Amino acid sequence: MRTAFNIILPDASEALWQGAPRLHDLAYAYLKGLLLGGGLDPGDQISSEAVGRALSISRAPVSDAIRRLSVEGLLEILPQVGCRVVRPVPAEVRDLYEIFGASEGVIAHWAATRRSEEEAEEFRALCTSLAADDGLPADPDARFLELRRRNRRRYEMLHKLARSPLSTDGGETYWDRSDFFLRVTFGGRDLPGFVRDARAALVAAVVAGEGQTAERETRQYLVRLGREVADVLERQAQEQDRR
User: Fold this and answer.
1) Which of the ends of the chain has fewer CB neighbours closer than 10 A, N or C?
2) Is residue 141 over pLDDT 70?
3) Which residues are within 8 A (CB) of 117 and not within 5 positions of it... i.e. 6 or more apart?
4) Is the pLDDT of residue 3 over 70?
């Protein structure tokens, strides 16, 4: 098991932008970047002292960030032991995607029935550009990060069309956990082909104003994706047991 003392934490100087954020927000963004983009893997232990040194801040804001990420399900705090990155449990992953699919399905339904004609065209144009392979990096890790960024843009606009601000914060937590699971299971590999097909069907349904179709396509593909992720996690666990 790795710890933050022997993980090479990247220099955080670039994260210190003009109009510096609150220190616990800085620590939170830094750790989340490592969790979602690579650098911290399931089971890795995290030292608040090491993170503080990387950011040139005290332990207190790092501890605040760790607590926040533990509430979001990305880290776990172990009494008398410390903190470590969660190890996804296949059965729990399936359950999470069931809930995720249901909630995002409702958002898709609202988006399809509440968007204006102008917004529908804007959504179609955005999703067409995001689905293009142009501009995708050749490096697998960079490609994964770019695809994740594009996917967030797609669903940020979907939530905007749904006109339900209360749904955004909860959705963000689900997307973060999903991105973490996808990085752990698929790494730099592309997602299964059904994901692209389902997204295209979702876009078509929103543009056409077909709420039930948009909800069904969203829910089905997220539930199916969760099952794929859980299956990969189970195979990974079996391989580790055989070693």
Assistant:
1) C
2) yes
3) none
4) no
